[in-house]
Amino acid sequence: MQHGTQPGLLGRSRTLAPHHLSLAFKFPLFVQALLLAVIWGLALFTDFSLKHHLERLLAAHQLAAVSVIEESLDQEIRLRAQSINELAQAAGNRDLYSSPEQLNVFLQDHPAITALFNGGLLALDASGVVLAGAPAVPDRISRNLAGRDDVTTVLARGKPVVSTLLADASSAHPSVTIAAPVVATSGRTVGILMGITN
Questions:
Q1: Distance in angstroms (rounded) separating the CA atoms of residues 90 and 93
Q2: Alpha-carbon span 179 to 160, nearest angstrom
Q3: Is 17 part of a structural domain of the chain?
Q4: Which residues does 128 contact at the CB level (< 8 Å), separation at least 6?
Q5: Contacts of residue 65, Cβ cutoff 8 Å, sequence gap at least 6
Q6: Which domain holds residue 190?
Q7: Which of 108, 117, 124, 194 has the fewest CB atoms below 10 angstroms from its CB?
């Protein structure tokens, strides 16, 4: 009997499989393994690239949304500051601070400006005492607000001031105030008009 052959059942000889794989069998396996590695590599790269791109896109979208909100808030604040300043100038030109009753009527006669401030409008004298308000809230009259930063700042600067977020003792909500000095026809600062937004 020759090496590598063995008699079959019917006397035929068959060749025994060699112990090593032939090149014709190894090459397709290598190509398939290489192809799978490339596909997995591309899938991982695409996943990483897409994730990175989506993160950048989301960050850009959030920045744009914040910019729009910031611009809108800035416009709202400018509108309110301009309105309260014009109202303060009108009150100063009419010398209304000599009569709290006339001052109260004056504030009530400007519902469009009052509507801009959901916490109402207050008229303070130069020492920080509340003389009038719209809408009328009786417990606010005669309150002394002289110790508040917004009051001292507007008196010191002589121009409209937007406060930081304040804790209002009369309500459970924080508030922001916009205050403007009231300058009489004599040129003396006689008080402050303050708009409150909750």
A1: 5
A2: 5
A3: no
A4: 144, 145, 146, 147, 148, 151, 192
A5: none
A6: 71-197
A7: 108
Residues 6 or more apart in contact with residue 178 via CB below 8 angstroms: 77, 80, 81, 84, 117, 160, 161, 162, 163, 194, 195, 197
Instruction: Give the number of C-alpha atoms closer than 13 A to the C-alpha of residue 78, restricted to the C-beta side.
Output: 6
Contacts of 163 (CB under 8 A, 6+ apart): 148, 149, 150, 176, 177, 178, 179
Work out how many domains the chain is built from and give that number.
1
Q: Distance between CA atoms of 64 and 58, rounded to whole angstroms?
A: 10
pTM comes to 0.65
Q: What CATH number should be reported for the domain holding residue 153?
A: 3.30.450.20
Q: What is the pLDDT along the chain (198 residues), one digit of tens a residue?
A: 455 555 555 555 555 555 566 777 778 888 898 899 999 989 898 888 899 899 999 999 999 999 999 898 889 989 999 999 999 999 988 888 888 888 888 988 888 888 888 888 999 999 989 998 888 777 888 888 888 888 889 988 989 998 877 776 666 678 888 999 999 888 888 999 999 888
Query: What one-letter code names the amino acid at 4?
Result: G
The answer to whether the peptide bond before residue 160 is cis (omega within 30 degrees of 0) is no
